[in-house]
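Course assignment 3, question 2. Fill in each field.
Student: A.L.
Task: Predict the tertiary structure for the chain below.
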Amino acid sequence: MSASASSPSSSSDTGLWHERAQALLAEGLVDGRASIGGQRTAAVSGETFVGRSPIDGRRLGEVARCQGADVDLAVRHARHAVDDGRWSAKAPAVRKRILQRWAELIVQHKDELALLETLDMGKPIRHSLSVDVPAAARCIAWYAEAIDKVYDQVAPTPAGSLALVQREPVGVVGAIVPWNYPLIMAAWKLGPALAAGNSVVLKPSEKSPLTALRLADLALKAGLPAGVLQVLPGFGHEAGEALALHMDVDALAFTGSTRVGRHMLDCASRSNLKRVYNELGGKSAFIVFDDAEDVARAARAAASGIFFNQGESCNAPSRLLVHAAVADEVIAEVLAQVPRYLPDDPLDAHTEMGAVVDEAQLRSVLGHIEAGQREGATLLAGGTRAHAETGGFYVTPTVFDDVSPQMRIALEEIFGPVLSVIRFQDEAEAIEIANGTPYGLQATLWSGQIDRALRVARALKAGTVHVNQFDEDDMTVPFGGVKQSGNGRDKSLHALDKYTELKTTWIRVQAA
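Answer field:
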């Protein structure tokens, strides 16, 4: 698929987006073939699977069903690229220029990429355009700009010795990314891994592979040497597991569920003990104290956080912990926001919430809603499927009150637009509830007291704590969690730690 020079730029014309989608599919421009060795290619077996849109079940096209033989081939290309230095041996300034050009091409193809992203996983086109595509381009450009400014070190050794501590690319990196933010998650892995000089084999989710494949095309166009980046669509238990088990993959970067993250570690232990960096699930607490200066603003932020991207965000604030004194006020404002997030056509430029990714995810979300009702929580809003007549997968924004910390909806990651309200009486109880899950990705607290904000932030077991805001973000700060939310960090210079080895060169300096 190629972008038309006359394509609209961030158009708000809903009809035009539908026309473009129809033309895209009618002309057979969706290319689901793998990208290996600089070429688009069918799977070695010739097998495919059908990609369908969660918007209405429409057929998007045939996608290569890559498996073990494809992984072997892709890793061989990646290893050759590492060994002959076509990328790893280039000066950082050279890698920088190519990655910058790639970022520019992503921006130039923003409409095409946004349309593919929306068709593939159901998020509103307005968000694909304003959030996902620009964020992916910024990530690639940021690491491009950073890589020739990262210095090695000279250790403070005794006189007569010189010890150099240098970063080297780890080699062949396997990257497995989820379906909820296909472009952004791919960029978070590819930006630092490629900037550091590695070769990468990327396995996107079988539920949303199209933009990752298109990224590979644009990377080649930007000048990335063939063999440095391979993209293999396929199923996790086939292509993903083969990549995790491969003896010639040096590091594995995985974003997905905690259950699969455990399996990634098992695969590493059964193969070559490759380093594994897991960015896993979350059950983020959003705490509103009674001294918050603007509880209505806090409530609006909570609603936006849980309903954005259909609730399909690992850091979504799915547990709203509210002091009993302000609970009714906060809940009333959250409920006032619900109509804004009623699911609608993702190709409508005004839609705020689209479709969940597929029928299996729909069933999972509805199953959790049923469990919440069965266990005694009070359903205040939503809880139903919407627009079933379209053939798509939509869930109404759902709010539960009277949730206890032991309920399934308070403990398990739902990955859907479901908010659980838990009331608390004091600071100690809020901290205990917030830390009372296996996860530790993010947390949020709202308070007008700086002492409390600092005290509680220190007590919360989370990789990031937001104070009096939710999800403010920048490429300069790391993203990742503790406990069963994973290890390692995406974003910022810290991400380079995952994709580089430290080598010490110790030199004896003879006295004159």
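Instructor remarks: The first strand starts at residue 34 and ends at 36. Residues 1-11 have pLDDT under 50 and may be disordered.
Grade: pending
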